[in-house]
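The following record pairs a protein chain with its ligand, H79.
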Amino acid sequence: MQSKILRSRIYLITLLFALAILGQLAGCSTAQKATQTAPLSQDAKMNWFREAKFGLFIHWGIYSIPAGEWKGQPVAGIGEWIMNRAKISVAEYEQLASQFNPVKFNAEEWVKLAEDAGMKYIVITSKHHDGFAMYHSKVSKYNIVDATPFKRDPLKELAKACAKHGIRFGFYYSQAQDWHEPNGAGNTWDFGPDDKKDFDQYLRDKAEPQVKELLTGYGPICLIWFDTPRIMTKERAQRFVDIVHTLQPACLIDGRLGIEGDYRSMGDNRIPNTVVEGDWEVPATINRTWGYKKDDHDWKTPEDLTFKLVDIVSKGGNYLLNVGPTAEGIIPQPSHDNLRAVGCWLKVNGESIYGAGTTPFGDEFGVYDTEKKDRRGNPVFNAKTDWRCTTKPGKLFIHLFKWPTGSFELSKVKGRVNKTYLLADPKRKGLNVQQEADRVTVSLPKTAPDKIDSVLVLEMAN
Ligand code: H79
């Protein structure tokens, strides 16, 4: 009798368990969670992004094997575009997958680099325009686990390392261009003109299910970075929005899906000339290319990278700075060195960056020269690079890239300055300050405490 009851209980428990697993497989549990918890306000959703300011972009794919050279000839342009620029057929380009074996890849090291650089999020190419998935996709065999001797899923390893180090993790996904697919946008050399293609077939059969995979198998995804929305109608874009909102309501969508996202994406390497309201990000290269190119040695210096970070933050944006790892899985040494130098600066001066607001001034950005015209006939903007200003409530952070002799003068200051000191001074010793109306003069030590950017804090009286 007793054993009968026990047996039926076991059946019941097994049944419930099986149902729970089925529910999970169908993606029900996440969807349910989304409707159960109160919807996130846009401010709550954006909070981490506004705080973060600095992220690591990683462009990694099988294009890192040719590394900018095809059949002994250098191919001009950005490395990840080689298939397009050299008009390599799908059949030929696919061969690269069978050679891809980045045995030196170490997720922990990559995440550690981001952490040491003071970056708060990582965005990696899960699939670029070439169509090759850098994770284990069940939707297409054209992926790093099924089509290479490497057979590992580096995105799984990175997700785990990011969780361990408290770095947020996001994916780049090329939703429109897919040069591997007959109905994806962009590959006209194998498949003819785009206007003859059935994009919805490609979107339904590959891009949409792959985005679902990325949002279910890799833990919480901070953002998804869509790009080049060539064929994206509002309806097509909305289907991706629905997928993201259903599976991970907290996941941000960038500005290049083809419909308004959670924030604006500026053009590649395009820093605006002035303060821009709202949430935005500048994706940028650390040399010239995104995907690794063996001949690109044009590394931005730590000085330049720090200036760009401060400049962007003072205008209200985030800096998503890219590295292009090699086919062995190595991030080039100059990228390591220059990012770590920025990280050292941030260790001392991070208070002036993370969660910081825009400048109340604006004249420091530069001036338009109306005598000179650019290619489009617009006046040329001459940027100034001496100083920038970031803010926190009651504080102005003056970033001095050129150390003035004796004193620093600032006009148009609203309110009274209470105290001034340098972030590089652990004692935060007050500096001599004089104020006449909105004009402030701060006496400075002879030499700059930081060779890149010494940050002067002006604390205001409330
Ligand atoms: O992922 C990176 C680029 O591959 C991608 N966006 C960043 C984040 C991107 N896709 N398209 N573009 C940038 C614009 C492409 C410009 C060019 Fe070209 C590619 C210039 C040279 C190669 C296409 C081919 C236009 C001219 C030749």
